[in-house]
Amino acid sequence: MRCGCRYVYLLMGVLIGSAVIPIAYCLVWSKCTATAAITGAVSGICLAIMSWLIAAKTLEGELTLYSTGAHNPPPSACPDPNSNSKLSESRFVGCLGRSSAG
């Protein structure tokens, strides 16, 4: 099983990128709770992996190392599998931060 640096870079973007917005909220927003940040990061990684695999299966017709590593932009408005997760995790963190900070 061989995978190059491009594949590792793409995989790291999918796995690590989902924690960016919750960490940023923790740093700059005083009403962001730990529960909100953790929920945002965990839901973000689940959505990132799901959209990455769906895009690979839809575009290439199979789930293989090649199809998940082919970084063809999806034909939707989101040019990156991470875009979906980053948008949704910010909603999770924002809703949980507002509801639990009283």
Explain what the structure shows.
This protein is mainly alpha-helical and 102 residues long. The protein has one domain. Helices cover 72% and strands 0% of the residues. It has five helices and no strands. Helix 2 runs antiparallel to helix 3, helix 2 packs parallel to helix 5 and helix 3 runs antiparallel to helix 5. The chain is elongated, with a radius of gyration of 15 Å. The termini are far apart. About 6% of the residues have low confidence.
Low-confidence stretches: 74-79
pLDDT averaged residue by residue: 74
Between the first and last Cα atoms, what is the distance in angstroms? 52 Å
Oligomer: single chain
Question: With helices defined by DSSP (H or I, 4 residues minimum), what is the helix count?
Answer: 5
Topology, number of strands: 0
The percent of residues in helical segments reads over 70%
Can you write the helix and strand succession as a string? HHHHH
Main beta-sheet strand count, sense and barrel state: none
Number of domains: 1
Class from secondary-structure proportions: mainly alpha
Strand content: under 5%
Shape designation: elongated
Rg value: 15 Å
Keywords for this structure?
mainly alpha
Blueprint (SSEs and pairs):
Layout lengths: L4 H12 L3 H9 L5 H27 L4 H5 L11 H20 L2
